[in-house]
């Protein structure tokens, strides 16, 4: 008599994967990482070079001797550029994850396999954050050779904290964009009219204390500002805002965005129709 396996003895309708499908999560994560690695000149090296050009242009244009928050301008702007590069690339990767599937008709590859909403969100945001940290790492290495850049973090934990949750925030925004968008122009419009302005008006190239009235209020409500201020604190030990308040704001935004993404994917909004 053939002995039945434990899986075949499971009652009908009982889930064989009790909580999290780790194998499916890992497979989807690896798929997304391989997707951007296939075009790494465009997804990793090009953003590194373009971000370094900001450092070159602004430091050369201002010349030597310019101080911001007590630091040489190159040292002040470098951490912000690293954080900005990480966030923009996290968004860029996640904003095309599901959109590519919808455009190419392969969205069923995400919906049919036995992976749940938690696994999809974790894998897609994790891959986007992996790209962000790769870009950030290579930027950090390159900026170590730039004169007057303080590349040794004073508070490594703050660098990791704001780098991690900042990249997660933009990865989740990108994921929501890929759920909403029906074509590449939709994702590009979010990047051009939302992400880019918020990134450039985040205090990356200036201290918000030099602003007044509406512009100061706008900056303090900009979530990019809190990420960059906290990330800069990790390197230089100075910040434009209270780092504990900034951390709380960024983490709260991540929780809200993650909840929205979970509800939309679980309901299949614009994915199953």
UniProtKB/TrEMBL annotation:
<feature type="transmembrane region" description="Helical">
    <location>
        <begin position="243"/>
        <end position="265"/>
    </location>
</feature>
<dbReference type="InterPro" id="IPR013525">
    <property type="entry name" value="ABC2_TM"/>
</dbReference>
<comment type="similarity">
    <text>Belongs to the ABC-2 integral membrane protein family.</text>
</comment>
<feature type="transmembrane region" description="Helical">
    <location>
        <begin position="44"/>
        <end position="64"/>
    </location>
</feature>
<dbReference type="Pfam" id="PF01061">
    <property type="entry name" value="ABC2_membrane"/>
</dbReference>
<keyword id="KW-0812">Transmembrane</keyword>
<feature type="transmembrane region" description="Helical">
    <location>
        <begin position="193"/>
        <end position="215"/>
    </location>
</feature>
<keyword id="KW-0813">Transport</keyword>
<keyword id="KW-0472">Membrane</keyword>
<keyword id="KW-1003">Cell membrane</keyword>
<feature type="transmembrane region" description="Helical">
    <location>
        <begin position="157"/>
        <end position="181"/>
    </location>
</feature>
<feature type="transmembrane region" description="Helical">
    <location>
        <begin position="120"/>
        <end position="145"/>
    </location>
</feature>
<protein>
    <recommendedName>
        <fullName>Transport permease protein</fullName>
    </recommendedName>
</protein>
<feature type="domain" description="ABC transmembrane type-2">
    <location>
        <begin position="38"/>
        <end position="268"/>
    </location>
</feature>
<dbReference type="InterPro" id="IPR000412">
    <property type="entry name" value="ABC_2_transport"/>
</dbReference>
<dbReference type="GO" id="GO:0140359">
    <property type="term" value="F:ABC-type transporter activity"/>
</dbReference>
<feature type="transmembrane region" description="Helical">
    <location>
        <begin position="76"/>
        <end position="100"/>
    </location>
</feature>
<dbReference type="InterPro" id="IPR047817">
    <property type="entry name" value="ABC2_TM_bact-type"/>
</dbReference>
<dbReference type="GO" id="GO:0043190">
    <property type="term" value="C:ATP-binding cassette (ABC) transporter complex"/>
</dbReference>
<dbReference type="InterPro" id="IPR052522">
    <property type="entry name" value="ABC-2_transport_permease"/>
</dbReference>
<keyword id="KW-1133">Transmembrane helix</keyword>
């Amino acid at each position: 008599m053939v002995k039945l396996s434990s899986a075949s003895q499971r009652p009908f309708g009982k889930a064989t994967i009790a909580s999290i499908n780790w194998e499916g999560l890992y497979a989807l994560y690896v798929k997304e990482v391989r997707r951007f690695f296939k075009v790494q000149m465009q997804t990793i090296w090009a953003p590194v070079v373009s971000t370094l050009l900001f450092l070159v242009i602004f430091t050369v244009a201002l010349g030597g001797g310019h101080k911001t928050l007590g630091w040489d301008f190159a040292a002040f702007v470098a951490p912000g550029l690293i954080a900005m590069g990480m966030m923009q690339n996290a968004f860029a990767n996640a904003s095309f994850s599901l959109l590519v599937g919808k455009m190419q008709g392969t969205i069923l590859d995400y919906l049919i396999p036995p992976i749940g909403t938690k696994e999809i969100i974790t894998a897609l945001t994790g891959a986007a954050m992996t790209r962000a940290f790769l870009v950030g790492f290579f930027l950090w290495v390159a900026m170590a050779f730039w004169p007057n850049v303080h590349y040794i973090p004073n508070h490594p934990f703050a660098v990791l904290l704001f780098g991690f949750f900042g990249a997660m925030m933009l990865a989740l925004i990108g994921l929501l964009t890929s759920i909403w968008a029906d074509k590449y122009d939709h994702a590009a419009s979010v990047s051009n009219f939302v992400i880019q302005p918020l990134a450039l008006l985040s205090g990356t190239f200036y201290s918000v204390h030099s602003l007044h009235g509406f512009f100061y209020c706008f900056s303090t409500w900009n979530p990019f500002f809190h990420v960059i201020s906290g990330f800069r604190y990790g390197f230089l030990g100075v910040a434009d805002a209270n780092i504990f308040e900034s951390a709380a704001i960024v983490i709260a935004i991540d929780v809200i965005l993650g909840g929205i993404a979970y509800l939309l994917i679980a309901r299949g909004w614009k994915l199953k129709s």
